[in-house]
Design a protein that fits this description.
There is one protein chain. The chain is of the alpha/beta class. It folds into two domains: 2-79 and 424-461, Urease, subunit C, domain 1; 80-292 and 341-415, Metal-dependent hydrolases (TIM Barrel, Alpha-Beta Barrel), CATH 3.20.20.140. It is 35% helix and 18% strand. The protein has helices spanning 2-10, 108-117, 123-127, 142-151, 171-174, 191-204, 219-234, 246-254, 271-280, 290-301, 317-324, 335-365, 386-396, 401-408, 410-415, and strands spanning 26-35, 41-50, 53-58, 67-70, 75-78, 80-85, 131-136, 158-161, 165-167, 185-187, 209-212, 239-242, 259-260, 283-284, 369-370, 433-436, 450-455, 458-461. The strands form four sheets. Strands 1, 2, 3, 4, 5, 16, 17 and 18 form an eight-stranded mixed sheet that branches. The chain has a five-stranded parallel sheet with strand order 11-12-13-14-15. Strands 6-7-8 form a three-stranded parallel sheet. Strand 1 (26-35) and strand 2 (41-50) form a beta hairpin. The longest helix is centred in the last third of the chain and has 31 residues, at 335-365. The protein is globular, with a radius of gyration of 22 Å.
């Protein structure tokens, strides 16, 4: 995080070549309906952008020499934040051999090496889906470096990253994720190992320390995790936890977790959970669609197709090719067993979906802050375009479209620790904006009607 603050301090003086001088002009967008990210709707509003930042919102006089863009009948929101992604994962099973082992075709080391070398393959998919910032909440150490690399690259989203995860999972179980040089997962064998991991990730500039699973029935693990949580606080970092059973999630909150990156999915949350979340100022990321993504990716291998929507053709060619060729990988798996498991998995998902929806709505109604995060990179949850499915799932849970705009923008920026920089349309904020053809305050699916995206004052055309 210190590196990000340094970058912001010098951003007005030095910028990467990728800014292309778009920041130097003054533009006024006129007559738009603006959702500012704070819950306000401004009719017939103007927005002045200069030097990559917002100078005026609402009633603004046209500056002399400014470029004028008439947005009559159009809608503007802040850029969306996907608060849960994984750059080391591809969106298919090649990066999750623990779920389906395709290593005969896709050796894990080669897959992870490619991800490290070409994370930019996903940048266009994010930006042209209206996502101007992402939070990588678990990955290789190189993912932390993306925070600096992407900050002044206006062809990339802003990035916050946590780096390698700490877990109670056995060394044998997590070996499949790690390569000989770098780790994604660190087994919490003792307190000192955990504390060293916290210090290392923090020294790299990580925005959060991720715990993958909470073994509440293991007193030694809980003792070690308590020391890890204390080390996180000592270093000024924050605790992020993956824990889906209610009892585990409560334990995480008791240790001071500031971000829960998945729904509680085994039962409806109780008053104790709500109060702990409020006391901690914990953000809750429902990740409504990721489990169904695994099922859809499995069906693709079985030859049942994988119907993903990509009207703007922003998904990279490598991903499209891999998904389209999925049935060719079927010889590596027990297709009969997989097919027979589908009805059982569908029933389990239906029950889980119902609980996740009830919890998202209940927490929102009780004042716990939600964020939108897709868990993109997992099989069936594609980078960029999955954001629409996630927001629509949250709307089906009963959360209003207007509230979802705030959840998807301001709240996401807050959990990335970037609320002073973006997430709302206010004077002085970075000019990260979306121009939409349809009204997202009526139906959040209108986010699919994105026409243009502005990242740091640079306008990116999505649809003509």
């Amino acid at each position: 995080m210190k590196r990000i603050l340094l970058l912001l301090a010098i951003a007005g003086i030095v910028s990467c070549q990728s800014t292309h001088q778009e920041k130097t002009g003054v533009t006024i967008f006129e007559n738009a309906t603006v959702y500012d990210g704070n819950g306000n709707k401004l009719e017939n509003a103007n927005i002045i952008v200069s030097g990559g930042r917002i100078e005026c919102v609402g009633e603004c006089d046209t500056p002399q020499g400014a470029s004028v863009v008439d947005l009559s009948g159009k809608f503007v929101t802040p850029g969306i934040v996907d608060a849960h992604v994984h750059f080391f994962q591809t969106g298919f099973f090649d990066s999750r051999p623990d779920a389906m082992d395709l290593r005969e075709i896709f050796p894990t080391i080669e897959t992870y090496g490619y991800q490290a070398s070409y994370p930019e393959r996903y940048y266009e998919a994010y930006l042209k889906s209206g996502v101007t910032a992402v939070y990588d909440v678990g990955g290789m150490p190189w993912s932390i470096e993306l925070q600096e690399k992407c900050e002044n690259d206006l062809s990339a989203p802003h990035v916050a990253a946590a780096g390698p995860l700490i877990t109670p999972a056995s060394p044998e179980r997590i070996e499949i994720f790690n390569n000989p040089v770098e780790k994604v997962m660190v087994h919490l064998s003792d307190a000192e190992t955990g504390k060293r991991t916290v210090r290392y990730n923090s020294s790299l500039g990580s925005t959060g320390i991720k715990i993958w699973g909470v073994a509440i029935d293991d007193p030694e693990f809980i003792s070690n995790l308590t020391e890890v949580a204390n080390e996180v606080e000592r270093t000024g970092n924050k605790l992020i936890v993956h824990s889906t059973p209610l009892a585990q999630a409560k334990a995480a909150l008791g240790l001071g977790a500031r971000l829960l990156v998945h729904s509680v999915e085994d039962q409806v949350v109780d008053e104790e959970f709500i109060q702990l979340a409020l006391e901690n100022n914990t953000y809750y990321n429902p990740t409504m669609i990721v489990s169904r993504g695994y099922l859809n990716a499995t069906k693709a291998v079985l030859g049942d197709g994988f119907d993903f929507q990509d009207p703007n053709r922003v998904i990279d060619d490598k991903t499209v090719k891999m998904i389209s060729e999925a049935p060719e990988y079927a010889y590596l798996v027990d297709t009969a067993a997989l097919r027979s498991s589908l009805p059982r998995r569908e029933n389990r998902l239906a029950m889980r979906d119902s609980i996740m929806a009830a919890n998202a709505l209940k927490l929102h109604q009780n004042g716990v802050k939600l964020v939108v995060g897709t868990d993109a990179g997992n099989p069936g949850t594609l980078h960029g375009v999955s954001i629409f499915n996630e927001m629509e799932a949250m709307q089906r849970a009963g959360i209003s479209a207007e509230d979802l705009i705030v959840i998807a923008t301001r709240n996401g920026a807050e959990t990335m620790e970037r609320a002073t920089d973006f997430g709302t349309i206010e004077n002085g904020k970075m000019a990260d904006l979306i121009v939409l053809e349809k009204d997202p305050g009526v139906d959040i699916s209108a986010m699919r009607s994105v026409l243009q995206v502005m990242r740091g004052g640079k306008m990116i055309q999505v649809k003509n």
